[in-house]
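User: Show me a protein chain along with its predicted structure.
Assistant: Here is one chain, sequence first, then structure tokens.
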Amino acid sequence: MSSNGENGGAPIQDDFRSEQFPVAHRPEEREAARQRRGAFPYRFPKDRRQLHGDFDVKENARRLLRFFYFERRLMQAVGAWTLAIPEFEVKVEAGRHLFFHADAAKNLRDRLYEQETSLKKIDDYRDEEIDRFIDELLSAETTPEFLVGLHQVAGKALEIAYRHHIDTTDSMADAPTIRQLKRILLDYEPMLEWGEQAIEAYIDGGVDEQRLATWRWHLQELLRSIGGITGSDPRGEAPIPLRIDSKPFERGTVPMRDSRFQTFKTTGDYDVGDGAPRFPKETYAAERLRFVRTQRDEVDAIEAFGTFLWDIRFMDFQAEYDLARITWDETRHTEMGHRVLQIMGYDPFELPNRLTGSTCRGPMEPAYAMAEINLFGEVGVLKTIGGFIKDAEKRNDRVLYHVADFIRSDERTHVRKGQDIIRVMTDMGMQDLELRTRELFTECLVSLGAITKDMDVFTVSREDLEELIGE
């Protein structure tokens, strides 16, 4: 095959086709095909895709595995920060974005499995350089610094890598990868846009823009030093010093709230926390307000499930994914509670926020904290929510009926998934786990002053725990 015009100036493609792989035309068949095409009446849209791409299956899988690992680590990272974020809107978005990264990881994992990478190899994959980058990102000293690393550095770099992969992989042979990446980008576009606006809000509110710029550059240089998202970009020197070299990251244990909130943690009873009942006990008005406040206060469930995800990282991908999905569900419950309070005529921040459950769970081992919220909190909700929905329907309370109906379906799912997650967290039998959980929460409630030591109890009962924690 000639490539320099020695074949009488014939095009390279023709040279390649006729000499290396000759074509066996039959003139009568070729002419018949031309005539059939000409007589065919429909002119469908032309497929403009080209059968060519920069990656073979091996290189495609290598890059997708790094994409998967970045997404998995970012999912875990957001979970680690859920307790420490004070601002309500940011904590809520963290619950949503945590799931976006989890779902991206799942989509990439599915595609890798289709390309003959075993699930064990995918789930066991580790990269020390990426881990070091994530650990440094986690070492942000403030929430706006964390958002800079999460969205403006890691998130933006992943978006660019996904778009580049879409443009350069084989658009026909690798169409499933392109479809998965485009699905991921549907979440990325609003997520990164929100991140930009949130960082601008912090700066407008007085956060030092120069400090954020310095931190952004620091993380960008660290990412560059490991070859970027794909690992194949030109490498530079890593910045020094790294924060993690002097102080390794540790997740927070105290639930943080911004200055708009008033909070209480010594009881799960809103009437006690408020100082006096707002409505007579056991009336529909009292139960209605309690239900809606409980949903608004599921901001603590964002913290709980996000923290569990961090605490069991790498134990089981499906458990991580289920925790991420539950976190997103609790995010929606929080948003619905906040919005319904507004519909009811309240400023949601005029009603004190209950911190009892999150205060107890924050420092606790994940199995016991998960058992409390799953075995007591969510099961307790299912005991009462059906009757509440019937009351709301009977009273033509359309707003409460609407949201409670959706919340009930979510909680049923959470109870089912929670049992599998607990089995990943511990080998304890359910009876032993329930008893130890009650013991630990008794100790916590005593330390908070929610119950007194002279009550002559060994552990609070299931019913008391549901009431005192308030979920």
